[in-house]
Amino acid sequence: xxxxxxxxxxxxxxxxxxxxxxxxxxxxxxxxxxxxxxxxxxxxxxxxxxxxxxxxxxxxxxxxxxxxxxxxxxxxxxxxxxxxxxxxxxxxxxxxxxxxxxxxxxxxxxxxxxxxxxxxxxxxxxxxxxxxxxxxxxxxxxxxxxxxxxxxxxxxxxxxxxxxxxxxxxxxxxxxxxxxxxxxxxxxxxxxxxxxxxxxxxxxxxxxxxxxxxxxxxxxxxxxxxxxxxxxxxxxxxxxxxxxxxxxxxxxxxxxxxxxxxxxxxxxxxxxxxxxxxxxxxxxxxxxxxxxxxxxxxxxxxxxxxx
Length: 307
Ligand SMILES: Cc1cc2nc3c(=O)[nH]c(=O)nc-3n(C[C@H](O)[C@H](O)[C@H](O)COP(=O)(O)OP(=O)(O)OC[C@H]3O[C@@H](n4cnc5c(N)ncnc54)[C@H](O)[C@@H]3O)c2cc1C
Known about the structure:
Blueprint: H1 2-7, H2 9-18, E1 23-31, E2 35-43, H3 47-60, E3 69-76, E4 81-87, E5 93-98, E6 101-103, H4 110-115, E7 122-131, E8 142-145, E9 153-158, E10 164-169, H5 178-190, E11 200-206, E12 214-215, E13 218-220, H6 236-254, H7 262-273, H8 275-289, H9 295-306
Parallel strand pairs: 1-8, 6-13
Antiparallel strand pairs: 1-2, 3-4, 4-5, 7-10, 7-11, 8-9, 9-10, 12-13
Helix pairs in contact: 2-3, 6-7, 8-9
């Protein structure tokens, strides 16, 4: 696992150096009756700022790119694909030809729906709300597994300027009203009513079957491939790694002596770098779910064994 981070270290270093928000070492992982600290390095940054950092990295390199374009249609041609995009600003059309497509268009991926029609992933639901208290408060960055929600959780991550990134990650197959649940936690921990209009929800997919994530010359990466951690729901790292592996797979395919298909190469690489992490997340989820009485104790033991 370390070696993949080393290979793409340059990009991560740049992101870390450019970012303005805080580095942290400790999550407080909390339940109704106990808590423990999880020590790890992580960065808390608004999604929009993070995307801008990535975009800036791309802008520093001499790579053709289009911003504000939605892909509306893809036509298979003799030599590859023709992608037809629409500029959001004025609805004008842009056409790009490509030999390969690496799909990084998220959970609702148009490319997956068009070319991988039978591919569907299990998912959990998450919500997010940026809370800006009127006065300075000091609530530690926390993941809270209250009895009402385990093995789902409520999170509150302290950002710059006294802003908290808060959210709820529901357990799988949980049909509780996520707004009600999020609002309940905002009132319990911050005495604050969650404004409905500033609250949004998303699906977080999880998938460890890597056998169908490429066909012909198209590869699915990130959320389009369902590569999120089932236990905690993180997927940014996996999205970046799978993007890198997709490029490596295409390079391998282009080698003269290669006899494998793109799907076989990509599956092998994902198995090498992501299978263990994603499978462990699924196992952790199942284990802690089945140990409701000592949910946090079980989770703490698993975390201590893996770091
Ligand atoms: C509330 C919430 C909190 C999360 N917190 C974390 C966290 O703390 N840490 C973590 O690691 N992960 C977190 N995740 C998961 C993480 O956000 C995703 O796993 C990650 O963003 C996946 O990256 P991606 O590039 O595959 O897809 P996305 O980030 O979804 O990006 C897809 C992009 O494709 C674009 N797109 C879609 N369709 C088209 C089209 N037709 N044409 C052109 N462009 C298109 C979209 O506009 C979007 O910009 C969280 C998710 C949620 C919902």
